Prior knowledge:
With about 250 residues, the protein is mainly beta. The protein contains 2 helices and 10 strands; from the N terminus they run H-E-E-E-E-E-E-E-E-E-H-E. Helix content is about 10%, strand content about 50%. The strands form 2 sheets. An 8-stranded antiparallel β-barrel has the order 2-3-4-5-7-8-9-10. A two-stranded antiparallel ribbon has the order 1-6. The termini are far apart. The model is unreliable at about 1-5, about 5-10 and about 15-30 (pLDDT under 50).
Amino acid sequence: MGRKAGRYIPVLGxxxxxxxxxxxxxxGQQVPATNAPHITSAYRWVGRALRLGAFxxxxxxxxxxxxxxxxxxxxxxxxxxxRLSNPLSVEVQAAYGQSDLLVIDPRLASGPGVVDTTxxxxxxxxxxxxxxxTGQRTWHRLQPFVLLEGGLLRGFKQPLSPALSTTAxxxxxxxxxxxxxxxxxxxxxxxxxxxxxxxxxxxxxxLHIKAPSGFFQQSVLDQINQLGLPAPQDKQWTHNLALTVxxxxxx
Length: 251
């Protein structure tokens, strides 16, 4: 047994020496300092690419020169966003609201005037692009962005005003109908970590308003001209400010 054990002594010594050599730093190799400062960054990576949000807010409207547009109102809806590339996401938005509409009669002796007020419900569907200014990262947990989108808005369930209820009044009745919508906006998203976040947005919502045909009857135009009032506009785009808060769930 003594002779057999003696055979392994040189081998064990060689292995022990190689272990010490591997554990010791070679010339030029840096040894990590135990008191090295911890480097922190203001940027954090956002790994998940899909998110669904529920939003609510206030739509501050511009009725237009002929006062045919919808009134200001709270509104809300759902948004789905999917990241296409590092800074770019595609967005689909569905919204719902209820606004008041002024009933305008342009045949009054004093010129076009308000004869009643009705309410209308409306829904919109839009799609567009969102560009994150910090890319697929947050800065101090914030991700600022800009966006551009377009779609359609449709009014429905608008009651008939008694002030324009006769057959002769039909050309002067107005409803939202279906109109194109364009939006440009900016905001920021607070992403604390995990699957939930909150964003705050301001959008310029452009609505395309079309006046009813009765506004352009020759007798109506002549009377408006005699009164020295501006002629009605057949079509016009109005700027409307939308302020919203969205709660997001990442997938």
